[in-house]
Structures are given as structure tokens and as C-alpha cells.
UniProtKB/TrEMBL annotation:
InterPro entries: Lipid/polyisoprenoid-bd_YceI (IPR007372), TTHA0802/YceI-like_sf (IPR036761). Residues 41-223 form the Lipid/polyisoprenoid-binding YceI-like domain. Keywords: Signal. Residues 1-19 form the signal peptide. Gene3D superfamilies: Lipid/polyisoprenoid-binding, YceI-like. SMART domains: YceI. This is YceI family protein. It comes from Kaistella flava.
Length: 224
């Protein structure tokens, strides 16, 4: 029976590892100079915008997913997005109830996971209540670049600050600009260790059970 369980787990891991990714892998580097807000500015519509997140156990098992709300602004010059700042309130972080089954988590619910993620074990919202993203550069998506975002037309770079660590990340995005609205859609993967997001001390087995990859989805709408 034990051997069968191990084989079943191995098979599950193989299926997950072969599963096609639905996000783009962000590239990262050191903190860069933030693009200045000039020309026309558009304020993020919090009710129409959302940041989606998905995290996993090791091997892509047991996905946990949810949302956070965001505020901010974009700057546009000659019909092109040139800068922007987004601030996600981690106090608004909510885990989708369907992502946590109390029947297999010793009675723990999505609300329990919310509290754990906001605790000092992870985001420590009492000290660091928000996550910030400041655009450093927006360029046309290089020719031949494949993206999981349908209609992706831009490559966006920005300083992502989580807790007290800032890392510059670059990812494809679909950006649309009209006279009264700017929209940005992207879905990309980051490595949480780049920001020192770990559960417990270094090498803690509890942290080992959690995948280092976290998927983020930006669905941002800004209006004049």
C-alpha cells in the first residue's frame, strides 16, 4: 500500500510538471529608476481592477488562489502608457473559498489562510500593509515574443516592492489606451524567494513544502 501511494504521488507530480503553464515567466533584476508621471494621468478604478494571485504546494499541487484590491495611476503621452504606480492593500487579500477544502485541511478554511498570509509568517501586514509596483519602462513587445496574454503588445518593467525588498520585474502585457481609459492585462510568474518571502527560518521544512513560484494576474482599468 505504501509503495502504491508513492507511485500515485509520483504520477501526480509528473502530470503537474507536464501541464502547460498559463502564465509568462517574469524576468527580474535590481531596482531601476522609476519613470516620471507626466502629461495625462488616469486614476485606477479600484472597483473595476483586480490583482489575482495563485500559489501552490511543491510540484504545483493544491493551488491556493484569490485576489487583492489595488489603487494607483497611469501616465499617458501621445497615446502611449509611459509610467504608472499601483498599490495593493494586503489587508484586502482574500482567498477564494473554493481553493481550500476544510475536509482535507483539518477544518482550516480560506479565512484561516487569509489570516496566516497576513501574519508575520508571510506578509506581516502590521509592518508592511501594502505591495507597490512602480513602472520603470514600457516598450513595444519584441517581435517574435510569445505570451500567454492574448493580444499582448507591450513589455512592462517595474519595481515590485514586497515588505522591505524591491526587485525590478519585466513581463508582457496587453495595454490599451483611449481618450478616457487605460487598461493593462498581464499574467506572469515570480519567485517569492527574490523578496525573501519564506515560511519560518531558512531551511524550514514547512517552507520547502510550498512552491517558490507565485502567479500574478493584473487586470487594471484607469479612467480620467
Amino acid at each position: 500500500m505504501k509503495k502504491l501511494s508513492i507511485l500515485a504521488l509520483s504520477a501526480a507530480l509528473a502530470v503537474v510538471s507536464c501541464k502547460e503553464s498559463k502564465t509568462d515567466m517574469a524576468t527580474s533584476t535590481t531596482e531601476q529608476t522609476v519613470a516620471q508621471h507626466t502629461a495625462e494621468t488616469f486614476n485606477v478604478n479600484t472597483d473595476s481592477s483586480m490583482v489575482n494571485w495563485t500559489a501552490y504546494h511543491k510540484g504545483g499541487l493544491n493551488p491556493r488562489f484569490g485576489t487583492t484590491k489595488t489603487t494607483g495611476l497611469f501616465s499617458v503621452d501621445n497615446g502611449n502608457l509611459i509610467s504608472g504606480s499601483l498599490v495593493s492593500d494586503i489587508n484586502s487579500l482574500t482567498t477564494d473559498p473554493t481553493a481550500v477544502d476544510p475536509a482535507i485541511t483539518d477544518g482550516k478554511t480560506a479565512a484561516d489562510l487569509d489570516m496566516h498570509l497576513k501574519s508575520a509568517d508571510f506578509f506581516d501586514v502590521e509592518k508592511y500593509p501594502s505591495v507597490k509596483f512602480d513602472i520603470t519602462k514600457v516598450e513595444d513587445l519584441p517581435a517574435g515574443t510569445e505570451s500567454k496574454v492574448e493580444g499582448a503588445n507591450k513589455q512592462v518593467s517595474g519595481n515590485l516592492t514586497i515588505k522591505d525588498k524591491t526587485v525590478n520585474v519585466t513581463f508582457p502585457a496587453k495595454v490599451e489606451v483611449t481618450n478616457d481609459k487605460v487598461s493593462l492585462v498581464s499574467k506572469f510568474t515570480i519567485n517569492r524567494q527574490d523578496w525573501g518571502l519564506a515560511y519560518g527560518a531558512e531551511g524550514d521544512p514547512k517552507d520547502w513544502m510550498i512552491s517558490q513560484e507565485v502567479n500574478l494576474g493584473l487586470n487594471i482599468v484607469a479612467n480620467k
